[in-house]
Amino acid sequence: MASVASPVIFKEFCPLYYLLNAIPTKIQKGFRSIVVYLTALDTNGDYIAVGSSIGMLYLYCRHLNQMKKYNFEGRCESITSVKLLSCFDDLVAVGTASGRVAVFQLVSSLPGRNKQLRRFDVAGIHKSSITALAWSPNGMKLFSGDDKGKIVYSALDLDQGICNSSLVLEEPSSIVQLDYNQKVLLVSTLQRTLLFYTEEKSVNQVGTQPRK
C-alpha cells in the first residue's frame, strides 16, 4: 500500500519589517551621524541574531516578539560573524573585524535555566577579522576562524564561568566556513577543504587539487 504523502505547506516570503524597523538606520555620535549597516546574520527556532557595523548585536526573540541589544565594551567596531546555539542554555557567539570573539549566555525564563546574562571572552589570539564560528552541540566547544587562516578552539565551562582558548590550526589562506560534529571539524578556506580530527590533531584534505 502506498504511503500517504504529507501535505505541502506554502509559505509567502516577505521583508521582515517588524525586525528591520527595530534596528536604527543611523546613530548619532557626537556631531556625526553614522549609518548603520547590517553585517552578519544567524537564525534558529528561537532567535534571529543580526550583527551591525557599529558593534551592536541585535537579538530578536521570536516567541516574545522582543528585540534586545548587546555590545562589546570599548571601541565600536563592525561585527563580522554571529552563531547561535540552543542547548541547555541559549548561547550566541560574536566575532568582530579586529579579531575579538565573545560568547553571550542568554537569560531564560524557563525553570532551571540561566537567570543572569553572562559574557565570555576569547583571549586575544585572533588579530584579524573573524570569518567563521562553529559550536559543538552541547555548547562546551567553540571554534573560530579568521581571514589570516587561524582557527582557535575555546573550551567553555558555563557553570564555572571559564573560557580557555588555544590555537589549533593555521592555514595559509582565509577561513570561509567551519562546522563541527563528533570530534571532527570541517574547515573550508579560500584554497582547500579539510577535515581536522580534534582528538588526534590530524588533517585529512578533501580532494587533491587546490581551489582556483
From TrEMBL:
A single BP term in Gene Ontology: protein exit from endoplasmic reticulum
SMART domains membership: WD40
Q: Which domain of life is it from?
A: Eukaryota
Any one GO CC term of the record: cytoplasm
* InterPro entries, per database record: WD40/YVTN_repeat-like_dom_sf, WD40_repeat_dom_sf, WD40_rpt
Q: What Pfam families does this protein's entry cite? A: WD40 (PF00400)
- State the name under which the record lists this protein: TCPR2 protein
Organism this protein belongs to: Hippolais icterina
The root-end lineage is:
Eukaryota, Metazoa, Chordata, Craniata, Vertebrata
Q: Which gene encodes it?
A: Tecpr2
